[in-house]
Every structure is written in structure tokens, then in C-alpha cells.
Design brief:
Blueprint lengths: L1 E5 L3 H23 L2 E5 L6 H8 L8 E5 L1 E3 L9 H8 L9 E3 L8 H13 L7 E4 L17 H6 L4 E5 L11 E5 L1 H4 L5 E6 L1 H11 L10 H5 L5 E6 L1
Parallel strand pairs: 1-10, 2-3, 2-6, 3-5, 6-9, 9-10
Antiparallel strand pairs: 4-8, 7-8
């Protein structure tokens, strides 16, 4: 089920979205005493993470983890782990536990088993998963025609190593770790956060396209296991 939340401004969108996320986190804490929060990188969600970081919440009972990561060290500007720590895991949210994907293995393929073991220890179902979407129709690191994509769409594991096709968009960061489609769907709530007219066009096309190899985000839209709340603003 797709639930659309479209706004005239980003300020309005992030105000409503922050309240939405806060309610999910508070409800999970009240019902079961802990929270698992899966997060995307990229610049778009930064205002949301900044707003959540100052919310008075039992952050010590929250486990935050990534939906994907470039296979780079945390001191690399491309690191999603570093971005989450800079934007969310500060202020009140500094008390949260963080689980990253990058480990000591030389390659993502070599580090896959270790990453899978770490993610299997996170409380499931995940209470909230926040996704983004690229202009090419990718979500997490499920890139069109990427090496490992078919496995990631079919596997019942949580994690998959991905190697994206060379592109100006990626630079040298082709090697990734990502949640599989199955991993993404181990969620009670999924929020897809997108901005701009170009992303709206991609979203509309993906809703009517079941070609997951060329438009991987469509797999999230076409499933019937987890409701997806789509937040968009210009």
C-alpha cells in the first residue's frame, strides 16, 4: 500500500515528517521498550535527522543502522556512517546505539557474512526504515543492472554486496553493501523521502513499472507486505 504525502515546501514536509517519525519511535518504545531505526544517507534526509536529534526520547533504547554503505572508511567524505553520526547521533540522540555496515574486510564481498551477522542481531521487525530514491530508480544501493542486484532482490538474507555500473554519479565508489529487498521489507514502516520534479517523474514511472532490474525501487512499490509512506516536496 502506497500512502502519498505531498507538500508545497520542504519546510512543511520536514515538519510533518518529523512528527510522523517521532510518533513511530515513541509508539515502539511504549509497546516493546526498544526501537530499531534503519537510515539512508545522502543530503536529502539531513533536515529530518537534525530535527530528530533534539527530540526528548529514550535514545538509549534506540538502535540505528544503515540501509546501505559505500565500502569506504568512516573518515572518507562518502561514508554514510559518518553522515549519520554528524546529522543524527548528536544532542539527545547521541545515546543511541549505532550499527554500521563497513567492517575490516578488504571488499564488501569478503565482509558480507560479518555484516549479515551484525544485522541479524538487530531487533526485527525494524520499526522504521527511511529510504531515498535516485534519478536512475535505485533505492538503498540496489542500482539498476548492478552486479549482485538479482541476488539482492531474491535472497532471504538481510544484506548483499553490490557493485554498481561505472557512472559519473558514483565516481570511484562502486563497491557497496546494501539491505536486500527482503531486508528492507523486514520493517513495520517504510518512508520514502524524495524532493524535486525529476524525482517525482521517476516515482510516477516506477509505480507503473515492474522491471526491477532497470528500476529497482519498483520492487518496494509493488510488494504488499509493508505500507510505504511517500513524502515529496519541490
Amino acid at each position: 500500500m502506497i500512502r502519498e504525502h505531498f507538500f508545497h515546501s520542504r519546510h512543511e514536509m520536514f515538519t510533518v515528517l518529523t512528527v510522523h517519525c517521532q510518533r513511530i519511535l515513541e509508539s515502539a518504545l511504549k509497546i516493546k521498550g526498544d526501537v530499531s531505526l534503519l537510515l539512508s544517507g545522502g543530503s536529502t534526509p539531513r533536515p529530518l535527522y537534525e530535527a530528530l536529534s533534539v527530540i526528548d526520547l529514550d535514545w538509549g533504547s534506540v538502535t540505528a543502522a544503515l540501509v546501505d554503505e559505500r565500502w569506504v572508511e568512516e573518515d572518507d567524505p562518502a561514508s554514510n556512517a559518518a553522515f549519520i553520526k554528524q546529522s543524527l547521533l548528536k544532542n539527545c540522540a547521541a545515546q543511541a546505539t549505532f550499527i554500521g555496515m563497513k567492517n575490516d574486510a578488504v571488499t564488501a564481498k569478503d565482509g558480507l557474512e560479518h555484516c549479515e551477522q551484525a544485522y541479524q542481531k538487530i531487533s526485527q521487525p525494524f520499526d522504521l526504515t527511511i529510504l531515498g530514491m535516485g534519478a536512475d530508480g535505485h533505492t538503498a544501493s540496489l542500482f539498476p543492472k548492478s552486479h549482485g542486484l538479482e541476488y539482492a532482490l531474491k535472497s532471504k538474507k538481510l544484506c548483499a554486496d553490490i557493485k554498481a555500473q561505472p557512472s559519473d554519479v558514483f565516481g570511484g565508489n562502486l563497491e557497496r553493501m546494501s539491505l536486500t529487498l527482503h531486508g528492507l521489507l523486514q520493517s513495520t514502516s517504510i518512508i520514502l523521502l524524495i524532493t524535486g520534479d525529476e524525482k517525482m517523474d521517476v516515482y510516477r514511472r516506477a509505480l507503473n513499472n515492474s522491471d526491477y532490474i532497470n528500476t529497482p525501487v519498483s520492487a518496494v512499490f509493488w510488494q504488499s507486505e509493508v505500507p510505504v509512506d511517500v513524502y515529496w516536496s519541490p
